[in-house]
Design brief:
Elements (H helix, E strand, L loop, with lengths): L3 E4 L5 E5 L4 H5 L18 E5 H5 L9 H5 L4 E6 L6 H4 L22 H14 L5 H5 L1 H9 L5 H14 L4 H17 L8 H6 L2 H7 L6 H18 L8 H4 L7 H12 L9 H9 L11 H11 L10 H11 L24 H9 L16 H10 L1
Antiparallel strand pairs: 1-2, 2-4, 3-4
Bound molecules: iron/sulfur cluster (SF4).
Protein backbone atom coordinates (compact mmCIF):
# COMPACT_ATOMS: atom_id res chain seq x y z
CA UNK A 1 0.00 0.00 0.00
CA UNK A 2 1.37 3.41 -0.91
CA UNK A 3 2.38 5.66 1.99
CA UNK A 4 0.61 9.00 2.12
CA UNK A 5 2.59 12.14 2.88
CA UNK A 6 0.82 14.77 4.99
CA UNK A 7 2.19 17.89 6.76
CA UNK A 8 0.83 18.46 10.23
CA UNK A 9 0.21 21.73 12.07
CA UNK A 10 3.89 22.03 13.14
CA UNK A 11 5.17 21.38 9.64
CA UNK A 12 6.36 17.85 10.39
CA UNK A 13 5.90 15.54 7.47
CA UNK A 14 3.95 12.44 8.42
CA UNK A 15 3.58 9.23 6.47
CA UNK A 16 0.42 7.24 6.89
CA UNK A 17 0.05 3.52 6.38
CA UNK A 18 -3.25 1.69 6.38
CA UNK A 19 -6.57 2.91 5.07
CA UNK A 20 -7.65 6.10 6.74
CA UNK A 21 -10.42 8.57 6.21
CA UNK A 22 -9.40 12.06 5.29
CA UNK A 23 -10.97 13.26 8.52
CA UNK A 24 -8.98 10.85 10.74
CA UNK A 25 -5.78 11.84 8.92
CA UNK A 26 -6.46 15.46 9.61
CA UNK A 27 -7.10 14.64 13.26
CA UNK A 28 -3.61 13.18 13.66
CA UNK A 29 -1.98 16.25 15.22
CA UNK A 30 0.86 15.59 17.70
CA UNK A 31 -1.43 16.50 20.58
CA UNK A 32 -3.53 13.43 19.86
CA UNK A 33 -0.63 11.11 19.34
CA UNK A 34 0.60 9.01 22.19
CA UNK A 35 4.21 7.83 22.24
CA UNK A 36 7.59 9.57 22.19
CA UNK A 37 7.35 13.16 21.02
CA UNK A 38 10.80 13.95 19.57
CA UNK A 39 10.02 16.28 16.72
CA UNK A 40 13.71 16.90 15.92
CA UNK A 41 14.79 13.33 16.37
CA UNK A 42 15.52 11.49 13.16
CA UNK A 43 14.27 8.24 14.63
CA UNK A 44 10.98 9.71 15.61
CA UNK A 45 8.09 7.33 15.32
CA UNK A 46 4.56 7.76 16.47
CA UNK A 47 1.99 5.09 16.97
CA UNK A 48 -1.48 5.81 18.13
CA UNK A 49 -4.97 4.46 18.01
CA UNK A 50 -7.63 6.62 16.45
CA UNK A 51 -9.89 5.17 19.16
CA UNK A 52 -8.38 7.54 21.74
CA UNK A 53 -9.59 10.55 19.81
CA UNK A 54 -12.86 9.05 18.64
CA UNK A 55 -14.00 8.16 22.16
CA UNK A 56 -14.48 11.85 22.99
CA UNK A 57 -16.40 12.77 19.86
CA UNK A 58 -20.14 13.36 20.20
CA UNK A 59 -22.38 11.05 18.17
CA UNK A 60 -23.63 12.88 15.13
CA UNK A 61 -24.19 12.30 11.44
CA UNK A 62 -20.95 14.05 10.53
CA UNK A 63 -18.99 11.75 12.81
CA UNK A 64 -20.30 8.53 11.29
CA UNK A 65 -17.33 8.05 9.02
CA UNK A 66 -14.94 8.67 11.92
CA UNK A 67 -16.79 6.28 14.21
CA UNK A 68 -16.65 3.61 11.58
CA UNK A 69 -12.89 3.74 11.56
CA UNK A 70 -12.50 3.64 15.34
CA UNK A 71 -11.28 0.06 15.44
CA UNK A 72 -8.49 0.69 12.99
CA UNK A 73 -4.99 0.97 14.31
CA UNK A 74 -3.19 3.70 12.45
CA UNK A 75 0.56 3.87 12.28
CA UNK A 76 2.32 7.18 11.65
CA UNK A 77 6.00 7.54 10.76
CA UNK A 78 8.05 10.69 10.25
CA UNK A 79 10.05 11.80 7.23
CA UNK A 80 13.60 10.85 8.29
CA UNK A 81 13.90 7.12 8.57
CA UNK A 82 17.51 5.93 8.86
CA UNK A 83 16.41 2.47 9.94
CA UNK A 84 14.51 2.14 6.70
CA UNK A 85 11.22 1.42 8.46
CA UNK A 86 9.26 3.19 5.77
CA UNK A 87 11.20 1.65 2.91
CA UNK A 88 10.70 -1.80 4.42
CA UNK A 89 7.01 -1.27 5.05
CA UNK A 90 5.41 -4.13 3.20
CA UNK A 91 2.21 -3.46 1.31
CA UNK A 92 -0.83 -4.95 3.05
CA UNK A 93 -2.40 -7.95 1.40
CA UNK A 94 -5.46 -6.89 -0.50
CA UNK A 95 -8.63 -8.75 0.40
CA UNK A 96 -9.61 -10.85 -2.59
CA UNK A 97 -13.17 -10.13 -3.57
CA UNK A 98 -13.15 -11.14 -7.19
CA UNK A 99 -11.19 -14.21 -8.19
CA UNK A 100 -11.09 -15.50 -11.70
CA UNK A 101 -11.73 -19.22 -11.43
CA UNK A 102 -13.11 -19.33 -14.95
CA UNK A 103 -10.76 -22.02 -16.23
CA UNK A 104 -11.46 -24.36 -13.27
CA UNK A 105 -15.19 -23.98 -13.06
CA UNK A 106 -17.17 -27.20 -13.45
CA UNK A 107 -19.32 -27.32 -16.59
CA UNK A 108 -21.66 -29.98 -15.17
CA UNK A 109 -22.89 -30.58 -11.62
CA UNK A 110 -21.66 -33.75 -9.87
CA UNK A 111 -23.96 -36.79 -10.35
CA UNK A 112 -25.46 -36.58 -6.86
CA UNK A 113 -26.43 -32.89 -7.30
CA UNK A 114 -29.69 -33.50 -9.16
CA UNK A 115 -30.63 -36.42 -6.89
CA UNK A 116 -30.25 -34.22 -3.83
CA UNK A 117 -31.66 -31.05 -5.35
CA UNK A 118 -34.83 -32.77 -6.60
CA UNK A 119 -35.31 -34.38 -3.20
CA UNK A 120 -34.81 -31.00 -1.49
CA UNK A 121 -37.47 -29.50 -3.78
CA UNK A 122 -39.93 -32.14 -2.53
CA UNK A 123 -39.03 -31.34 1.07
CA UNK A 124 -39.59 -27.63 0.40
CA UNK A 125 -43.13 -28.33 -0.76
CA UNK A 126 -43.82 -29.89 2.67
CA UNK A 127 -42.31 -27.22 4.93
CA UNK A 128 -42.79 -23.52 5.55
CA UNK A 129 -39.65 -21.46 5.98
CA UNK A 130 -39.15 -17.84 7.11
CA UNK A 131 -37.87 -16.97 3.64
CA UNK A 132 -41.28 -17.84 2.14
CA UNK A 133 -43.08 -14.93 3.76
CA UNK A 134 -40.37 -12.74 5.15
CA UNK A 135 -37.57 -13.17 2.60
CA UNK A 136 -36.55 -10.22 0.45
CA UNK A 137 -38.63 -11.47 -2.48
CA UNK A 138 -41.83 -11.31 -0.47
CA UNK A 139 -41.33 -8.86 2.36
CA UNK A 140 -42.25 -5.77 0.31
CA UNK A 141 -45.55 -7.31 -0.74
CA UNK A 142 -46.23 -8.57 2.79
CA UNK A 143 -45.72 -5.16 4.46
CA UNK A 144 -47.09 -2.81 1.79
CA UNK A 145 -49.35 -4.95 -0.40
CA UNK A 146 -47.46 -3.80 -3.52
CA UNK A 147 -46.22 -6.31 -6.08
CA UNK A 148 -45.10 -4.07 -8.93
CA UNK A 149 -44.16 -0.49 -9.76
CA UNK A 150 -41.43 1.95 -8.84
CA UNK A 151 -42.17 2.03 -5.11
CA UNK A 152 -42.32 -1.78 -4.93
CA UNK A 153 -38.92 -2.05 -6.63
CA UNK A 154 -37.45 0.51 -4.25
CA UNK A 155 -38.85 -1.41 -1.26
CA UNK A 156 -37.24 -4.60 -2.63
CA UNK A 157 -33.90 -2.82 -2.79
CA UNK A 158 -34.22 -1.58 0.80
CA UNK A 159 -35.20 -5.01 2.13
CA UNK A 160 -32.16 -6.50 0.40
CA UNK A 161 -29.85 -3.82 1.78
CA UNK A 162 -31.18 -4.46 5.28
CA UNK A 163 -30.97 -8.24 4.95
CA UNK A 164 -27.22 -8.87 5.07
CA UNK A 165 -26.12 -10.46 8.37
CA UNK A 166 -29.74 -10.32 9.52
CA UNK A 167 -32.40 -13.01 9.92
CA UNK A 168 -35.48 -12.80 7.71
CA UNK A 169 -37.70 -12.45 10.80
CA UNK A 170 -35.79 -9.36 11.98
CA UNK A 171 -35.65 -7.90 8.49
CA UNK A 172 -39.42 -8.29 8.27
CA UNK A 173 -39.93 -6.49 11.61
CA UNK A 174 -37.75 -3.58 10.49
CA UNK A 175 -39.47 -3.27 7.12
CA UNK A 176 -42.78 -3.15 8.99
CA UNK A 177 -41.44 -0.44 11.32
CA UNK A 178 -40.30 1.63 8.32
CA UNK A 179 -43.60 1.16 6.51
CA UNK A 180 -45.71 2.12 9.56
CA UNK A 181 -43.46 5.10 10.38
CA UNK A 182 -43.58 6.58 6.88
CA UNK A 183 -47.32 5.99 6.55
CA UNK A 184 -47.80 7.85 9.85
CA UNK A 185 -45.73 10.71 8.41
CA UNK A 186 -48.14 11.04 5.49
CA UNK A 187 -46.25 9.28 2.69
CA UNK A 188 -48.89 7.67 0.50
CA UNK A 189 -47.00 4.41 -0.09
CA UNK A 190 -45.07 4.43 3.18
CA UNK A 191 -41.47 3.40 2.55
CA UNK A 192 -40.47 5.16 -0.67
CA UNK A 193 -37.57 7.05 -2.21
CA UNK A 194 -39.04 10.44 -1.22
CA UNK A 195 -39.49 9.28 2.37
CA UNK A 196 -35.86 8.15 2.63
CA UNK A 197 -34.56 11.34 0.99
CA UNK A 198 -36.53 13.46 3.47
CA UNK A 199 -35.41 11.49 6.55
CA UNK A 200 -32.34 12.34 8.57
CA UNK A 201 -29.71 9.60 8.62
CA UNK A 202 -29.75 9.38 12.42
CA UNK A 203 -33.53 8.94 12.46
CA UNK A 204 -33.20 6.21 9.84
CA UNK A 205 -30.47 4.58 11.92
CA UNK A 206 -32.77 4.52 14.93
CA UNK A 207 -35.63 3.06 12.90
CA UNK A 208 -33.50 0.18 11.61
CA UNK A 209 -31.47 -0.44 14.77
CA UNK A 210 -32.58 -4.08 15.00
CA UNK A 211 -30.67 -5.17 11.88
CA UNK A 212 -26.97 -5.95 11.95
CA UNK A 213 -24.60 -3.09 11.06
CA UNK A 214 -27.55 -0.64 11.17
CA UNK A 215 -25.37 2.47 11.32
CA UNK A 216 -23.49 1.57 8.17
CA UNK A 217 -26.66 0.44 6.45
CA UNK A 218 -28.38 3.76 7.25
CA UNK A 219 -25.49 5.58 5.56
CA UNK A 220 -25.58 3.28 2.53
CA UNK A 221 -29.35 3.61 2.16
CA UNK A 222 -29.19 7.40 2.26
CA UNK A 223 -26.33 7.46 -0.27
CA UNK A 224 -28.10 5.00 -2.57
CA UNK A 225 -31.37 6.99 -2.41
CA UNK A 226 -29.45 10.10 -3.45
CA UNK A 227 -27.82 8.29 -6.39
CA UNK A 228 -31.17 6.84 -7.51
CA UNK A 229 -32.75 10.28 -7.37
CA UNK A 230 -29.98 12.14 -9.15
CA UNK A 231 -28.84 9.57 -11.70
CA UNK A 232 -31.75 7.19 -12.35
CA UNK A 233 -34.84 9.36 -11.89
CA UNK A 234 -35.77 7.27 -8.84
CA UNK A 235 -35.92 3.99 -10.78
CA UNK A 236 -33.95 0.82 -10.11
CA UNK A 237 -31.48 0.24 -12.97
CA UNK A 238 -31.58 -2.99 -14.97
CA UNK A 239 -27.94 -4.08 -15.07
CA UNK A 240 -25.86 -5.80 -12.42
CA UNK A 241 -23.00 -3.34 -12.98
CA UNK A 242 -25.19 -0.35 -12.16
CA UNK A 243 -26.83 -2.01 -9.16
CA UNK A 244 -23.56 -3.20 -7.63
CA UNK A 245 -22.17 0.32 -7.98
CA UNK A 246 -24.46 1.36 -5.10
CA UNK A 247 -22.72 1.45 -1.72
CA UNK A 248 -23.19 -1.77 0.26
CA UNK A 249 -24.76 -3.70 -2.62
CA UNK A 250 -22.91 -6.83 -3.77
CA UNK A 251 -23.58 -9.47 -6.45
CA UNK A 252 -25.92 -11.53 -4.23
CA UNK A 253 -28.24 -8.58 -3.62
CA UNK A 254 -27.83 -7.36 -7.20
CA UNK A 255 -28.86 -10.60 -8.90
CA UNK A 256 -31.75 -11.14 -6.48
CA UNK A 257 -32.96 -7.58 -7.04
CA UNK A 258 -32.90 -8.01 -10.82
CA UNK A 259 -34.94 -11.20 -10.47
CA UNK A 260 -37.46 -9.78 -7.99
CA UNK A 261 -37.84 -6.28 -9.39
CA UNK A 262 -37.43 -6.78 -13.12
CA UNK A 263 -37.69 -10.54 -13.68
CA UNK A 264 -34.21 -10.41 -15.21
CA UNK A 265 -32.28 -13.63 -14.74
CA UNK A 266 -28.60 -12.93 -15.30
CA UNK A 267 -27.06 -14.58 -12.25
CA UNK A 268 -27.61 -16.56 -9.05
CA UNK A 269 -27.87 -14.89 -5.64
CA UNK A 270 -25.76 -17.03 -3.30
CA UNK A 271 -26.11 -16.54 0.45
CA UNK A 272 -24.39 -18.23 3.38
CA UNK A 273 -26.83 -21.18 3.48
CA UNK A 274 -26.13 -21.92 -0.18
CA UNK A 275 -22.40 -21.50 0.29
CA UNK A 276 -22.44 -23.89 3.28
CA UNK A 277 -24.51 -26.52 1.51
CA UNK A 278 -22.47 -26.37 -1.68
CA UNK A 279 -19.44 -27.12 0.49
CA UNK A 280 -20.78 -29.87 2.79
CA UNK A 281 -22.70 -31.60 -0.01
CA UNK A 282 -19.56 -31.49 -2.19
CA UNK A 283 -21.47 -29.86 -5.05
CA UNK A 284 -18.60 -27.59 -6.06
CA UNK A 285 -14.90 -28.45 -6.37
CA UNK A 286 -12.96 -27.71 -3.17
CA UNK A 287 -11.12 -24.42 -3.18
CA UNK A 288 -9.02 -22.39 -0.76
CA UNK A 289 -11.43 -19.52 -1.31
CA UNK A 290 -14.85 -21.12 -0.88
CA UNK A 291 -16.56 -17.73 -0.90
CA UNK A 292 -20.16 -17.08 -1.96
CA UNK A 293 -18.70 -15.47 -5.06
CA UNK A 294 -16.83 -18.68 -5.99
CA UNK A 295 -19.94 -20.79 -5.30
CA UNK A 296 -22.00 -18.43 -7.47
CA UNK A 297 -19.61 -18.80 -10.38
CA UNK A 298 -19.62 -22.60 -10.00
CA UNK A 299 -23.42 -22.78 -9.86
CA UNK A 300 -23.83 -20.50 -12.86
CA UNK A 301 -21.36 -22.58 -14.84
CA UNK A 302 -22.82 -25.96 -13.74
CA UNK A 303 -26.39 -24.83 -14.41
CA UNK A 304 -25.74 -22.93 -17.63
CA UNK A 305 -28.13 -25.30 -19.45
CA UNK A 306 -30.74 -24.94 -16.71
CA UNK A 307 -31.20 -21.20 -16.41
CA UNK A 308 -34.76 -21.70 -15.20
CA UNK A 309 -33.19 -22.84 -11.91
CA UNK A 310 -31.18 -19.64 -11.44
CA UNK A 311 -34.03 -17.80 -9.79
CA UNK A 312 -35.46 -20.88 -8.00
CA UNK A 313 -32.39 -22.29 -6.36
CA UNK A 314 -31.97 -19.48 -3.81
CA UNK A 315 -35.36 -19.72 -2.05
CA UNK A 316 -35.32 -23.55 -2.26
CA UNK A 317 -31.94 -23.95 -0.59
CA UNK A 318 -32.30 -21.03 1.82
CA UNK A 319 -35.63 -22.33 3.16
CA UNK A 320 -34.21 -25.85 3.46
CA UNK A 321 -31.21 -24.45 5.34
CA UNK A 322 -33.42 -22.40 7.67
CA UNK A 323 -35.69 -25.26 8.71
CA UNK A 324 -34.12 -28.70 8.04
CA UNK A 325 -30.42 -28.61 7.18
CA UNK A 326 -29.52 -26.13 9.90
CA UNK A 327 -25.99 -24.73 10.24
CA UNK A 328 -25.82 -26.11 13.77
CA UNK A 329 -27.42 -29.46 14.54
CA UNK A 330 -29.09 -30.21 11.19
CA UNK A 331 -32.36 -32.13 11.48
CA UNK A 332 -31.13 -35.32 9.81
CA UNK A 333 -33.71 -37.20 11.93
CA UNK A 334 -36.56 -35.66 9.92
CA UNK A 335 -34.75 -35.12 6.63
CA UNK A 336 -35.88 -37.52 3.88
CA UNK A 337 -32.38 -37.37 2.36
CA UNK A 338 -30.81 -38.91 5.43
CA UNK A 339 -31.80 -42.50 4.64
CA UNK A 340 -31.26 -42.41 0.89
CA UNK A 341 -27.47 -42.62 1.04
CA UNK A 342 -27.07 -39.59 -1.23
CA UNK A 343 -26.18 -36.97 1.38
CA UNK A 344 -22.43 -36.83 2.11
CA UNK A 345 -23.03 -34.74 5.26
CA UNK A 346 -25.58 -36.90 7.08
CA UNK A 347 -25.13 -37.15 10.85
CA UNK A 348 -25.18 -40.94 11.33
CA UNK A 349 -24.92 -40.72 15.11
CA UNK A 350 -28.04 -38.57 15.21
CA UNK A 351 -29.92 -41.06 13.03
CA UNK A 352 -28.90 -43.91 15.35
CA UNK A 353 -30.10 -41.93 18.35
CA UNK A 354 -33.38 -41.12 16.59
CA UNK A 355 -33.92 -44.84 15.83
CA UNK A 356 -33.35 -45.77 19.48
CA UNK A 357 -35.72 -43.01 20.52
CA UNK A 358 -38.41 -43.96 18.01
CA UNK A 359 -41.15 -44.69 20.52
CA UNK A 360 -40.85 -41.20 22.04
CA UNK A 361 -41.75 -39.62 18.70
CA UNK A 362 -39.95 -36.89 16.75
CA UNK A 363 -39.19 -33.75 18.71
CA UNK A 364 -39.80 -30.24 17.43
CA UNK A 365 -37.37 -27.92 19.16
CA UNK A 366 -38.83 -24.80 20.71
CA UNK A 367 -36.33 -22.61 18.87
CA UNK A 368 -37.04 -24.13 15.46
CA UNK A 369 -37.91 -21.71 12.69
CA UNK A 370 -40.65 -22.35 10.16
CA UNK A 371 -43.08 -25.25 10.14
CA UNK A 372 -41.93 -28.86 9.99
CA UNK A 373 -45.21 -30.50 10.98
CA UNK A 374 -46.10 -31.88 7.50
CA UNK A 375 -42.66 -33.41 7.14
CA UNK A 376 -42.89 -35.07 10.54
CA UNK A 377 -46.36 -36.37 9.76
CA UNK A 378 -45.05 -37.95 6.51
CA UNK A 379 -42.29 -39.73 8.41
CA UNK A 380 -44.58 -40.97 11.16
CA UNK A 381 -47.07 -42.28 8.56
CA UNK A 382 -44.26 -44.31 7.00
CA UNK A 383 -43.31 -45.96 10.29
S1 LIG B 1 -26.99 -33.05 6.44
FE1 LIG B 1 -28.79 -34.05 7.33
S2 LIG B 1 -30.37 -32.48 7.19
FE2 LIG B 1 -28.75 -31.84 5.80
S3 LIG B 1 -29.37 -32.71 3.82
FE3 LIG B 1 -28.02 -34.18 4.78
S4 LIG B 1 -29.39 -35.57 5.82
FE4 LIG B 1 -30.57 -33.76 5.37
Amino acid sequence: MALKKVKDELGTTLYFTGRQTRRSRLSASPSTVSGTDKTDDAEEKFTFESKQRLSILPRSTENHDILRSKRRRIQVKTENDPKGLIAEAKPKKQRVTQVNFKENLPTQPPPHFWLMYNEIKKVRSRIKAPVDEMGCANVATTVSGLSEGKVYRFQCLISLMLSSQTKDEVNFQVMKILQDYFLSKGYKHGLSLEAILDTDELVLDQLIYKVGFHRRKATYIKQTAKILHEKYNGEIPRTIEEITSFPGVGPKMGFLLLQIAWNINTGIGVDTHMQRMAKIFKWVPPSKNMSPEYVRRCFESMLSDHKEEWSRINPILVGFGQVVCLPQRPRCDVCPLSRTGICPAVDKALLKKADLDKKNGIKIESKSRGDLSNLIKDIEDLR
